[in-house]
Amino acid sequence: MSELYFSEIQRFRKWWLWVMMLGINSIFIYGIIQQIFIGQPFGDNPMSDTGLCLSAFFMLILSLLLFNMRMETQIKSDGIYMRFFPFHFKYKFYPWSDIDKAYVRQYNPIKEYGGWGLRIGAFNVSGDKGMQLEFKNSKKLLIGTNQEIKLKEVLSSLGHQQV
Fold first, then answer.
1. Cis peptide bond upstream of 41, omega within 30
2. 138 closest CA partner among 101, 110, 107
3. Do 41 and 31 meet the contact criterion of CB atoms below 8 Å apart?
4. In this predicted model, what pLDDT tens digit does every residue of 69-126 receive, in sequence order?
5. Residues near 82 by Cβ (< 8 Å), separated by ≥ 6?
6. Structure pTM?
7. CA 132, CA 74: separation in Å to the nearest integer?
8. What is the DSSP code (8-state) at residue 40?
9. Residues near 122 by Cβ (< 8 Å), separated by ≥ 6?
10. CA 138 from chain center: how many Å?
11. What is the average pLDDT across 55-66?
12. What is 88-139 written as a DSSP string?
């Protein structure tokens, strides 16, 4: 069993995202109440009751998915473990033996990766700091962090913080 040195869980918890999701879900719920329970069409060109219910259900599922999404990062003596739940049920493991360099850096999420989330070459939830992994096979992976200082300390204490 390897020793745990660092653990971080990040979630999508930006206030503006939840205001937007609450607004969209509220519109659908209001539409269902007005069209199905009161019997008045919702909007100038109302969709069918089934379409309205399916759309509302889809938005609620999307909101629940977003609410339950989390990125988990662990640094252990044998390597780095990472998962983006619910897309990864099991941790992805990156052994130290495959990693050439590991360091914390600032990045531009939109310019470099097209935003936040599961990206080609990056896993990030918020912010602009991340642990850059450069593998011996020349591939790169950035894992976002909100604990930049602690992560630097851990990598340095393990002899892996390199720039």
1. no
2. 101
3. no
4. 889 999 999 999 999 898 889 999 999 999 999 999 999 888 888 777 778 888 888 8
5. 71, 72, 73, 74, 88, 91, 92, 94, 123, 143
6. 0.76
7. 14
8. -
9. 107, 109, 112, 113, 130, 141, 142, 143, 144
10. 25
11. 91
12. -SS-EEEEGGGEEEEEEEE--HHHHHSSSEEETTEEESSSSEEEEEEETTS-
Structure token digits, residue 53: 């219910």
Please state the separation of Cα 7 from the chain's center in Å. Answer: 16
Cβ–Cβ < 8 Å for 130, 105 = yes
47 near 19, Cβ under 8 Å?
A: no
- Token pair of 72 as six digits: 């988990």
